[in-house]
Amino acid sequence: MTIKVAIAGARGRMGVEAVKAVGHAADMEIVAILDYKHDGLFLHEEQVNDHGEGYPIYTSFDVLIQEKAPDVLLDLTTPDVVFTHMNEAIQHGVRPVVGTSGLQMDEIEQLTALAKEREVGGIIAPNFSIGAVLAMKFTAYAAKYLQDVEIIELHHNQKVDAPSGTAMKTVEMITKVREAHKQGHEDEKELIEGARGADVEGMRVHSVRLPGLLAHQEGLLGGEGELLTIRHDSFNRSSFMPGVLMSIRHVMNDKELVYGLEHILD
Amino acid sequence: MTIKVAIAGARGRMGVEAVKAVGHAADMEIVAILDYKHDGLFLHEEQVNDHGEGYPIYTSFDVLIQEKAPDVLLDLTTPDVVFTHMNEAIQHGVRPVVGTSGLQMDEIEQLTALAKEREVGGIIAPNFSIGAVLAMKFTAYAAKYLQDVEIIELHHNQKVDAPSGTAMKTVEMITKVREAHKQGHEDEKELIEGARGADVEGMRVHSVRLPGLLAHQEGLLGGEGELLTIRHDSFNRSSFMPGVLMSIRHVMNDKELVYGLEHILD
Amino acid sequence: MTIKVAIAGARGRMGVEAVKAVGHAADMEIVAILDYKHDGLFLHEEQVNDHGEGYPIYTSFDVLIQEKAPDVLLDLTTPDVVFTHMNEAIQHGVRPVVGTSGLQMDEIEQLTALAKEREVGGIIAPNFSIGAVLAMKFTAYAAKYLQDVEIIELHHNQKVDAPSGTAMKTVEMITKVREAHKQGHEDEKELIEGARGADVEGMRVHSVRLPGLLAHQEGLLGGEGELLTIRHDSFNRSSFMPGVLMSIRHVMNDKELVYGLEHILD
Amino acid sequence: MTIKVAIAGARGRMGVEAVKAVGHAADMEIVAILDYKHDGLFLHEEQVNDHGEGYPIYTSFDVLIQEKAPDVLLDLTTPDVVFTHMNEAIQHGVRPVVGTSGLQMDEIEQLTALAKEREVGGIIAPNFSIGAVLAMKFTAYAAKYLQDVEIIELHHNQKVDAPSGTAMKTVEMITKVREAHKQGHEDEKELIEGARGADVEGMRVHSVRLPGLLAHQEGLLGGEGELLTIRHDSFNRSSFMPGVLMSIRHVMNDKELVYGLEHILD
Questions:
Q1: B35 & B136 share domain
Q2: Max CA-CA distance within chain C?
């Protein structure tokens, strides 16, 4: 059986990749694009199906659902519209697969309750990269046993914030499995301020910014006489697509809304 | 309550470390050393308790058990005696913690059955390094999702065999979670023989041998646009001790014999 | 003074990058494109100058030289035409900067002699990446002191040949500074064929091929108690442009033809 | 011809290694040990020559020189006595090889002048590790071309100061070949203080401290589309010995005092 997928946010950077990935998946079919700014034109030139045809574009989600009855809504839009989309989707039994971060905690709770009531599967994944999610999961798991941890995250020099969101998320996951404790020598002295990095409950986070770099992260866990290093390198946006496809397949067989790709990696 | 530990194999390289580690653990006490070659002398100079005293040495396990009633037997001897030790230990309700590899499969089965019958906890761990065991576990787990895997193991140039035992064990664990498949380009060509490494069900294993190196392993898992690397560095034998202590604590609360440290990492 | 540059091979993958890079360099001007297949059309849409104008395209090098009098010919074409281009350029005092590999040794000698006679600067660089050239140079230099070397090169799984050309070039450079000698344990044993990699005068070369990877190389040099690692990561073709611009500037002040970017790094 | 070596500081950690290394070098002979605290006893048990004999110990450098006429003084003592030793050695034509850091600049100048006058070779090397010196040299050299640099140095958690001396020395070498400039995004923002590390003329230095680690340093140099990484791992003190032996051989053929092992790597 082919999974019928509607995509919102198809013109964005993630969207362009997603249309290609879903469009080429043997067990999926893009039945519609939701695009409020649609002006009668098609999408980008390369966003066509295997027959070279464009996809039907809708400016109303309601009409889209009625006419195309999608199984799944893949939503790669922005926080301001995604709640409405998800709410409407779940109401109509359309399973949401959402890559947009930025939903409020109470919104997520509301949607989770609704999905449970209607027995509709769904997933909200701030990060669709399977490798990145595995890296975070492993780092946090290992921190139970090797409790001295430092994170080095490395990005191109066009990134403004330090540390990265992924580093902050990793650190947060670690704080759930280990007690806060000061790391390093008790009389440690920074000869130059900042040398020892950002301090989060004793863990140290270091942010490297260099031209040429893409997105990389290393979790270093030290123990007596040994070091465990978990590193993830993101080379391009296509790395998110296997996680998107896995999510689409997963929600077809689930009856709940989950938050985080890690929960569907068994 | 203090755990009473008897140690066999205390003069070996692992044993020397273990006497120090167990001797300094606040919740443990070394009640006896089992040493058939005992000639009336003490162990190495540094193998003493916190009061600078040597440990009582026995040349008979039977007598040792009767006089000292240990809770745990930490056995770091050789394959030829370990089965007898374990068998006798379990019979007397002494929990075995064993670092010796080389037991036969049927011996392990026999001991497992006995331990179950007597409700005695125990563990046989070919590798007591928590970091190394986590690295293998993570690599195998990740291979379910990122199925193209290469292993690079790096050791000092005094190591004879290639690949290393840990690399072989890792590869074996991976074969259980992924289908064999040829990796690399289908028309791949080695301009010089061996460039692509050892082939194990399509996975490639590369062995680096250099002076200066100790014991290191990297698992590289590639996916569309991303790379996950899991690396473990062993800097010295002390890295095995946290796993030894964890095992001693674990068997006190278990009623089964398990094989592999990975099974007591929850 | 602005350097007047003519570019041959502008439609190729390197060419597209080069038109952008030279077009944006403050001290350079693209005065002409040499393109035999020119059909009256401009180049790719994005290949325009800062005023949005296309560049003048010539189908004859002779006419180009007469009308535009370039200082430098940047040649990114194929081996079959590059000799003729270089010969003609040097004859007319136009300095060649050439990225095409594949020239015969006797052709290079002939061009070198001609450039010397006419006192015209020029460079042939099989690899324009400054980082890659530095990495090779450093690895070879270090091998004088740390004579046990292994090379790990890592590329995407669409690469057919193993080892890579860069690895072979690195190894060749090393053989000039150290004596061949067997590395590893003298009784070394491969439990699985190929584990120890390709053997080049005792050095070992390992080729990793994984989806997701781009182009990476590590030189590992081991000594008593230490390891020196020199790693280069190529993330995209833009990494060649600084070397192209450096070469264009260099040939303006040289009176010889050199082979290899390493010779203009002082 | 065998080089006759006298060693001062033989009981220290470096000294113990040095006695072994020089004692086993085929072209060297330890003719005397200078040890003011000598109380008639020999050195450590293992500090003997190949015949199992201890080395002659002197408590006066004057007498030592007269009786043993060493070619070289290998001095591994402390800053308070090393100047006197060097001065006296050079006066008597004994070539000093000195691993002690902490000499004042004017002392070094004075000794350099004296060595020149007497035409006596000598070397003061704050770091005898060839690999570490090569790593610093390469990082500084590369920074001429790839001017965005970050240093990550990693040490065991018993180290008090951050950054390490080697990192500071590396950074100092880099400042001589590149202009200071702010690295990273111009609007860069640290969400947690210290994330971007220590700032030295725009370069960023990050200090990792973990149990298990020994002494490691990575220089990362980023350029358009590429990354060059130069890493050095020190696994134990024996890594200093090849540099010590190279220095002893070097001073036999030199007539000047040099500062830094990098100056005798050709």
A1: no
A2: 69
For residue D170, give how far its alpha carbon lies from the nearest alpha carbon of chain A (Å).
Answer: 15
Chain-centre distance for alpha carbon D81: 17
Of B146, B229, B236, the CB nearest to A225: B236
Nearest by CB: C214 against A213, A235, A239:
A235
The amino acid occupying position B176 is K
Contact A235 C239 (CB under 8 A): no
- The residue type of A8 is A
Task: Please check whether residue D48 lies inside any domain of the structure.
Answer: yes
- Kindly state whether residues D28 and D115 are assigned to the same domain: yes
pTM (predicted TM-score)? 0.91
Amino acid at C147: Q
Asked, for residue C259, whether it belongs to a domain, the answer is: no
Residue D156 is among the residues annotated as catalytic for this protein: no
- Sheet containing D28-34, strands listed edge to edge, beginning at the edge strand earlier in sequence: D57-58, D28-34, D3-8, D72-75, D95-98, D122-124, D257-259
**What confidence tens digit (pLDDT) does each residue in C98-127 have?**
987 778 889 999 999 999 999 999 999 989
Q: Any idea which residue has 């001429």 for tokens?
A: D144
Question: What is each CA distance from C130 to B50, C134, C236, in whole angstroms?
Answer: 59, 6, 13
Domain assignment of residue C148, yes or no: yes
Contact D225/B at CB under 8 A: no
Question: What's the pLDDT score for residue D137?
Answer: 96
End residue of a domain, out of C120, C144, C178: C120
Quote the strand ranges of chain D, DSSP E. 3-8, 28-34, 57-58, 72-75, 95-98, 122-124, 148-155, 161-162, 189-190, 198-200, 203-209, 215-223, 226-234, 257-259
Residues of D in Cβ contact (< 8 Å) with B213? 235
CATH number, domain with residue B11 = 3.40.50.720
Contact check, Cβ <8 Å, A225/B238? yes
Task: For residue C160, give how far its alpha carbon lies from the nearest alpha carbon of chain A (Å).
Answer: 21
**CA pair distance B225, A132, nearest whole angstrom:** 11
3-state secondary structure of B153: strand
Q: Is C52 on the interface with B (CB under 8 A)?
A: no
Contact residues on chain B for C192, CB-CB shorter than 8 A: 163, 198-200, 205
pLDDT digits (tens, 9 = 90+) for A128-142: 999 999 999 999 999
* A115 and A139 co-located in one domain: no
Q: Which chains touch A (3 or more CB pairs under 8 A)?
A: B, C, D
Does the residue C102 lie in any domain?
yes
For residue A166, the domain's CATH number is: 3.30.360.10
Q: Which residues of C touch D129 (CB under 8 A)?
A: 226
Write out pLDDT tens, residues C10-40: 888 889 899 999 999 999 999 999 988 765 5
Residues D113 and D175 both lie in one domain: no
Number of domain units in chain B: 2
CA atoms lying within 13 Å on the CB side of residue C263? 13
- Look up the domain containing D174 and give its range: 130-235
Is residue A81 located within the same domain as residue A145?
A: no
Which residues in chain D land under pLDDT 50?
none
Partners for D (CB, 8 Å, 3+ pairs)?
A, B, C
Count Cβ atoms below 10 Å from residue B228 Cβ, excluding itself: 28
- Both C92 and C137 in one domain: the answer is no
What is the secondary structure of D222-260 as a DSSP string?
Answer: EETTEEEEEEEEE-SGGGGHHHHHHHHHHHTT-SSEEES
